[in-house]
Amino acid sequence: MKILANTGRECVEHIFEGGVSAWDIGASVGQGGRNDRDDVRTIQRLLNLIGPQDGGPVIALDEDGWIGPKTNKAILDFQRFQRTGSDGRVDPHGPTLKRMNEIPKHRMKAQNAALLAKVVTAMPDLNQMSLKARRTIEGAIDYVRLGEGLFTSKRNYELADLYFDFSKLSDSETLSELGLIRTTLRRAYAALQVPPISLTGSNPAGISIFTIDPLGKNYYAYVPRTETKKNKRSPGSDPAYIYVCQKMSKPVMDKFTHILMHELFHFIDDETFLYIRDHCYREKIFNLTHKQRMRNADNYAVFTSHVHFGRERLLKSQPKLRPHIPVHLH
User: Fold this and answer.
1) CA distances from 283 to 59, 171, 215, 319 (A)
2) What is the CATH topology of the domain spanning 113-324?
3) Considering only CA atoms, which of 313, 279, 315 is closest in space to residue 299?
4) Phi-psi region of 51 (alpha: psi -120 to 50; beta: other; left: phi over 0)
5) Hey, which of 89, 121, 241, 269 has its CA 20 to 30 A from 202?
6) Residue 78 has pLDDT above 60, yes or no
7) What pLDDT was estimated at residue 20?
8) pLDDT at residue 198 tops 80
9) Residue ranges of the Peptidoglycan binding-like domain (predicted)?
């Protein structure tokens, strides 16, 4: 299984071969450990979730992924307090890691509830983003067919062209590509309408496709991918969901919503229709060819954000886009 993950700096593709509901590491961390940066960061995050009364650090560790005296001491102090060892090292599947996962569950529960509440707040914007963007594309189709007139607007075409670049296409080719974009936006809107699971009552307010990352990944969000996109359950991760990570508590609301929309385009792609990937992110999307833009998630996400939020509000949350968006496309 593959996952497409938003790290905040870039979108990355990883191979994922299962997992567990607890946060895990690939190799040992601490004194004498391999200390891979992602593993060190995972342990730092776990230790920061543990209060001093349970053996956690009095002063929070920098979650930078670098091993040093403070992190080594925090591991050893935790081991001695919890009586899980005295070697100052956390091993995969070892007693120290198991105990680190057990203690902060109550704090994680509160953080997870807050994240899902933030998703609920974003839902009206997500719905409007997909609807307004689809109407803009339909307006662009009318403009290509009929030209500018009483019931058509060049602005709709200019917005679509800014993000998908039809400059080298004939009118018939442009109409075909606009039709594909419209279908993609219809899929996005339909996915947002998935009702809650009636048997459990989980994920109210129509957010059934969003859930909390169970793996402790240092991403903002990710979507598991399989070659067939069937909703097969696998331990720890399921392609039926978009996973929201703890790092998502940091972005401002408009950026938070944008990231959810970005992942939604991965979610609705069945890997046979367009195969929406991550060629690049933010301001770099304007350097792509038309073919690449049609298959790049952030072109869709920035386009829908622009259409719904407007130019200035979009630039407030993503200022690096300013040189690329004309003022008249407000």
Assistant:
1) 38, 27, 30, 9
2) Collagenase (Catalytic Domain) (3.40.390)
3) 279
4) beta
5) 269
6) yes
7) 36
8) no
9) 37-92
Burial classification of residue 170, based on how many CB atoms lie within 10 Å of its CB (0-12 exposed, 13-18 middle, 19 or more buried): exposed
Amino acid at 97: L
Residue 226 near residue 232 (C-beta atoms within 8 A): yes
Instruction: Judge if 25-92 and 113-324 fold alike in CATH terms.
Output: no
Angle, CA of 67, 11 and 107, to the nearest 5°: 55
Give the orientation angle of helix 105-146 with respect to helix 154-164, to 10 degrees: 120
- The H or E element spanning position 134 is helix 105-146
Mean pLDDT, all residues of the chain: 86
Each domain of the chain, given as residue ranges in start order, spans 25-92, 113-324
Confidence class of residue 17 from pLDDT cuts 50, 70 and 90?
A: very low
Residue ranges in 5-104 assigned as alpha helix (H): 37-48, 69-82, 95-102
**pLDDT at position 207, please?**
60
Contact 194, 203 (CB under 8 A): no
**Residue 289, both tokens:** 């060819």
- Kindly tell me if the per-residue pLDDT of 15 is higher than 70: no
pLDDT band for 18, please (50, 70, 90 cuts). very low
- What span, in angstroms and rounded, lies between the C-alpha atoms of 264 and 312? 23
Q: Which fold has domain 25-92?
A: Muramoyl-pentapeptide Carboxypeptidase; domain 1 (1.10.101)
**Residue 207 contacts residue 244 (beta carbons within 8 Å):** no
For the entire predicted model, the pTM comes to: 0.75
Evaluate if residue 318 carries a pLDDT over 90.
yes
Question: What is the structure's pLDDT at 185?
Answer: 96
Q: At what angle do helices 171-192 and 297-309 cross, to 10 degrees?
A: 80
Q: Which residues of 226-259 are buried (b: 16+ CB within 10 A; e: fewer)?
A: eeebeeeeeebbbbbbbbbbbbbeebeebbbbbb
Q: Could you give the CA distance from residue 121 to residue 41 in angstroms, rounded to a whole number?
A: 29
pLDDT band for 151, please (50, 70, 90 cuts). Answer: confident
